[in-house]
Design brief:
The chain contains 19 helices and 19 strands. By secondary structure, the protein is of the alpha/beta class. The longest helix is centred in the last third of the chain and has 15 residues. The relative contact order is 0.10.
Length: about 500
């Protein structure tokens, strides 16, 4: 395997073919998508200095590229290809296999290739239901080859990746454009994959697109790309406007340390843990119909974390009894509310119960701003879900100081952003506004292993927020995987078994 065949930064410009002139002096590869053998005939003649990379959606394209003398250039085999033993030939230019979930990684390990590329759902185009964070966890644990990641990767995250063993990244130009340009919709593809597209016309246009996709998903894959639905970018990454960004990534690829070992931000007894009177800065996420067991809460606390009782779906008397029983344990605990599901009258009853029992933390999910205002009139310790930087600004101005930044990987009422995308937004906002000593962040969604916590520690370090900012972690699914959850909560064994067996999960 020869990783040098692939530049450390690949540009996925979402155009069929781009002029590579401005990248000739740069150590970056520009991906061209080839959907069929006919696409090869329209390729330009490349100069000796150019570094094209071909992403293939049809394996028969390999032989056509070879006959045209293009086998000196690296290729990426799309995760949509169903690879079998013997499908991958010797390729002088180097071969990368794109993967999008655990089974894809395990399968790719058996092939001879130079590189794996984890493609997350955070970039438009074909994907599965794994974010960049989930793929980072999976690749770090299971990959037998070097790997890149393809998601929304800012400078600080890129450095964190490099310091965590990631070999490079694929960049899309969308991350440099603040205007969303439309709403992202999923459209079904064969084999359980989906096509995430930016739809400017909202649901009405999405209905028409879905009909076209269902008629012939393979043909629509190409036309959606050529029609610009994979990208909202107005110019490619090698344009004069975005070239300074690209040069910064390339400089980081050369200079950023690979052996950097940051101190953990989640050590026992740190300021974030002390603020909740727990050993560890970890919160067990409130899970409706699951975390309603005081004995389970006691086990969570004994293991070092702050248990959180779920009040969603409970009547006033049930909520009162649950908090009363938990308070009698004499341990700190939290209580979670789903704001959008509570009427004003119901909220008043909940507030009275909370003020009576005074949990260590009150978590407000899917927040309605009038409910936030009502809770801020109490002296309860309030944590509010803020899925992005804009919501954090609004809530901060209202007086909220503890925020749960939860990505799409989490369960329940979640963001439309992946966790790493949401965390980068919020960390940039906190640094820019210099409010790190005024707030407490609780990060949630896809935190499944020590690989994730170590990556987060490095991310905070590269943002220079590892000392001044209190940060905790919230986990839910990890607790559902425990024997205590089966013994002490209403969690069905069949549900837990699905957690162990399934390759992906989807928020419905």
């Amino acid at each position: 395997m020869n990783l040098n065949k692939f530049p450390p930064v690949l540009l996925d410009d979402a155009y069929l073919y781009c002029n590579l002139a401005e990248t000739e002096q740069l150590d970056a590869g520009l991906i061209s998508n080839l959907f069929s053998t006919e696409d090869v005939s329209t390729l330009p003649i490349f100069s000796a200095k150019e570094r094209p990379v071909f992403r293939l959606f049809d394996l028969s394209i390999l032989e056509i590229l070879r006959t045209k003398g293009l086998d000196k250039h690296p290729v990426i085999l799309s995760h949509l290809l169903d690879l079998e033993e013997g499908d991958i030939p010797e390729w002088h230019g180097g071969i990368a296999i794109e993967v999008a979930n655990k089974s894809g990684i395990i399968k790719a390990n058996h092939f001879k290739c130079d590189l794996l590329i984890g493609r997350s759902f955070e970039v438009p185009g074909p994907s599965r239901e794994c974010s960049a964070l989930v793929l980072f966890n999976l690749l770090s644990e299971h990959a037998s080859h070097p790997f890149y990641l393809h998601g929304r990767t800012g400078y600080e995250l890129f450095q964190s990746y490099l310091a965590s063993g990631v070999s490079g990244v694929v960049l899309s130009p969308d991350q440099f454009h603040e205007e969303p340009g439309g709403e992202v919709f999923r459209f079904p593809l064969a084999g359980g994959a989906s096509l995430r597209l930016l739809v400017k016309g909202g649901a009405p246009e999405a209905i028409d697109i879905r009909s076209r996709c269902l008629q012939d998903s393979q043909a629509f894959l190409r036309t959606s790309h050529s029609d610009g639905l994979w990208s909202n970018a107005k110019e490619p990454l090698q344009s004069s406007k975005l070239l300074p960004h690209l040069k910064q990534y390339l400089q980081l690829a050369r200079l950023s340390p690979r052996d950097f070992a940051s101190n953990t931000c989640f050590a026992p007894g740190n300021p974030a843990a002390k603020s909740f009177h727990c050993e560890l800065p970890i919160i067990q996420g409130a899970m409706a119909n699951i975390s309603i067991s005081p004995p389970f809460a006691e086990e969570v606390f004994r293991a070092g974390a702050l248990p959180c009782m779920a009040l969603a779906g409970l009547g006033p008397q049930q909520a009162e009894q649950l908090l009363s029983d938990t308070t009698q344990l004499g341990i700190p605990y939290g209580a979670g509310i789903v704001s959008v599901s509570e009427s004003d009258e119901a909220l008043e009853q909940i507030v009275n119960t909370l003020e009576k029992h005074r949990p260590e933390l009150v978590v407000l999910a899917a927040p309605q701003l009038d409910h936030v205002q009502r809770l801020l009139k109490t002296d309860l310790n309030l944590a509010v879900h803020a899925p992005n930087a804009a919501m954090l600004r609004v809530l901060f101005d209202m007086g909220v100081r503890t925020f749960i930044i939860e990505g799409e990987e989490a369960g329940g009422h979640v963001s439309r952003l992946g966790s790493l995308s949401a965390w980068q937004e919020v960390l940039s906002e906190i640094r820019d506004q210099r409010i790190e000593k005024q707030v407490h962040l609780i990060l949630a969604g896809g935190i499944a292993s020590h690989f994730a916590t170590e990556l987060i520690s490095k991310l905070l370090n590269f943002y220079e927020l590892d000392e001044g900012l209190k940060v905790s972690l919230q986990m839910g699914s990890a607790y559902m995987a425990t024997s205590e959850a089966l013994e002490l909560t209403p969690l069905p064994e069949s549900y837990q078994q699905l957690l162990f067996e399934l390759d992906e999960t989807v928020v419905t």
